[in-house]
Design goal:
heterodimer, A: mainly alpha, two-stranded antiparallel sheet, 2 strands, globular, B: mainly alpha, two-stranded antiparallel ribbon
Chain lengths: 499, 494
Amino acid sequence: MTSEMASSSLPWLTLSIFVPVIFGLLVLLIGRDDHPGPARVLSLIGSIAGFLVTLPLYTGFNPHTADMQFVENKPWIDTFNLNYHLGIDGISVWFVLLTSFITVIVVLAGWEIIKSRVAQYMAAFLILSGLMIGVFCALDGMLFYIFFEATLIPMYIIIGAWGGPNRVYAALKFFLYTLLGSLLTLIAYIYLWHESNGSFDVATWQHLKLNYSQQIFIFIALLAAFAVKIPMWPIHTWLPDAHVEAPTGGSIVLAAVMLKLGCYAFLRFLLPIAPDASHSLAGLMILLSLIAIIYIGLVAIVQDDMKKLVAYSSVAHMGYVTLGFFLFNVTGMEGAIIQMLSHGFVSGAMFMCIGVMYDRLHTRRIDAYGGIINRMPKFVTFFVLFSMANAGLPGTSGFVGEFTVILGAVQFNFWVGLLAATALIWGAGYSLWMLKRVAYGPVANENVSGMKDINGREYLILGLLAIMVLFLGIFPSFFTDLMHPSVNALMQHVAVSKL
Amino acid sequence: MHTLFDFALATPEIVLLALTGLVLLLDAFDHDAGRRVTFTLTMATLLIVILVSWGQWSSDLHGRTFSSLYVADSLGHFLKILSAIAVGVTLIYGRSYAEKRDMTTRGGELYSLTLLMLLGEFVMISAGSMLTVYLGVELMSFALYALVALRRDHLASTEAAMKYYVLGCLASGILLYGMSMIYGATGEIGLAEIAAVIRGGHAQALPLAFGVVFIVAGLGFKLTAAPFHMWTPDVYQGAPTTVTLLVGAAPKFAAFCITLRLLIEGLHGIALDWQPMLLIMAVLSLALGNIVAIAQTNFKRMLAYSAIGQMGYVFLGLLSGVASGQAGANASAYGASLFYVVIYVLTTLSTFGLILLLSRQGFEAEEISDLKGLNRRNPLLAGVLLLSMFSLTGIPPLSGFYAKLIVLQAVVSAGYVWLAVFAVMCSLIGAFYYLRVIKMAYFDEPEDGMVLSTGTFATRGVMSINGLLIIGLGILPGGLIALCERVITQSLVF
């Protein structure tokens, strides 16, 4: 039935990937430094078109099956059996939509702030968007790797060319850290290709018999790339640097989508290909996740730079995701996926809020602000909402993800659940304390007293994000209903030993 | 008795030699400083040679002639066409550079010597015996020694030429000594005959093993592999950039071809003797090239070390073919190396081409810091630089990634997982200095008072095609990979 649906309609996944890429190239062609208007407009059209072509993926999605949908499979490089094989299931569909949605936000966010080389900036984001969607759709291991690695190029340029004062260091660190992990993954993929008699097909890999030591090797090699990308403690140190130096749009994409690439790869590759290794190393992974949740949560509290604070809170939130994966129960897994989506909206919104303040005062230091509610009441309303969501307040999306993971953790082991639950305290600590220092109290200095409230464009961006945060918080079943079959199938697959 | 067919096989060389003589003659009547007539004639010569080789290839002309001294096969046709294209592109990029540096005012030797170099490469590519290999190597090398010294009143160039000459002669001597050992051990100079003697078990083991050591050392020199790389940085840096590109691009095809012919065609029977040597050379080249390149501030010197590192990958492909022991896997491993060389030359053309385009009268644009803010001045050239650097790093979807991928596939298939891990770690180190070049072009502001040339419309056009090929062969590499594998299986017997 699904194949009939796919064959009777347009190749929506190819469109989702290449509409933004082609618009990006067009923007690059028409862009002129002295006259950035047309480039901006074309980018906005491109991002909206990119979002619209992903909508049929939701409307045409069959929620009753765990099979891949909208499948496209064409031979690409015959000599090593590499196929252009795309498809989505109930998990990846949400990340495709998230990516195309965030791209619209990012184009709007950079509308006025970016003044130099506008066309290149916008084009980089549009191309990046297409590549990231490609990562979520790829069902061929090497195709996945190609998209996964290619995202480095635009992000390196975005951080390095439009970033803050220490941008070169941050961009290099981002690139080299990620490349280190990826190259080991490349070896693992080639090894899998060799073991499966020359196939890059993900489904073949998932059913490939591997003995225990092979699985451990694959696990470690894949973990190297995905753990850097997530990032997990203790290889998270590139993230605060990258976030602090990146322009607002770069931070939004990095937090909202790029971190999810690594998490998603856990679900698609690591757990299904090496289930026995995953089970036996689950204790270690849970330990690392708990350290991320607790230790990084505490680190976030003492930051005096707002972006750094949110960056560290991202690491802590990603700790929840990895914790949920390695509990090996459906609750934990779904909680982790909800947490990924929620973090996409909430962290994106937090970086947008910081960007709004930075555009006015050109500093990210918390002590440079104070009492901005007196000058920016509309903005602070949004800021409060997103801070609450970041702390995991019920009614917001942050709560659903964290709470579900904690439930899963308690099912697994009471003490793990208890330790994970402390994150609600740290979350409240860093989010609300920052909110208090930045937004409340008397107007701190004359710079703050000159701040203007948000304009229509910023209102629109924050409003859209706020709707998503509340919607996901109040109707999580809207998202989980589509996921159930895929998550169940994954759990069943992982439960069966390959030995 | 030689028939007409014997000569027909060697048409590309005969035509090239005749036309080179014509160019040399007509150049005497060209008094223009830019040597417009000579340049045009040289380009026409290259075009004719390409067409002749193409014609031979498409009519599937193959065979041995002149008592097996000369061999025509699809590998040869393929590499001859590529060499001629690489030389043509080099001359297009390097013409105005050479003119501004007085390299063509006194005479058109740049062009005639380049054509002679190409003839040497053709002879190497078509070599059917050790004697022909040596003849080709010497013809190519002597033309190159003279070319490096072409700016005769320039100190660095002269020094580079001297070093190149002394070390080059040493390497040729080593190669020749190795050949004489092989001859002593087998009593044959023809590569196919040597292979037959070794297969038959009639060769004397000890001189044969000694001979292989010397041959591999000589090939290592020509392919700029560590520890025989010493000349590379000085020559790359010291030579006028046009000549650097002549040294760095097209000869790689010829050197790779004689490596295939000597080691695979001739000495495949004792592969277990030379394979460990290739392994050591690959490991040393990867480590040394990538680590030392970090410390360089001169772009040409950095690219020289990068060339050493990149050649490590070529050797990885060659040695893993042997380890697997299956004919099919062999072909794909050697095909992987060939593909790697093709992509490497493509990228070398664009990077050195950029240096040539950016330099102007009295300014070489060869320091990495000269690239500062290139994106502000010329987004097109900066874009090509970006593609080239990411391709050399091996980031998908650029062609350099597939080159590394298929070599690594061959290495893993041969069972050397640790070697693959070592290679990618060296690539990681390499990423640092390639990224630093991109940083200069994209992240830094241009410095005041520094004017860069941007080349003519034609050179920019060729550069754009060059850049498009780097990404185009990354998006659709399948055809070229299959072609490389096919010419290997059609031409080599192992």
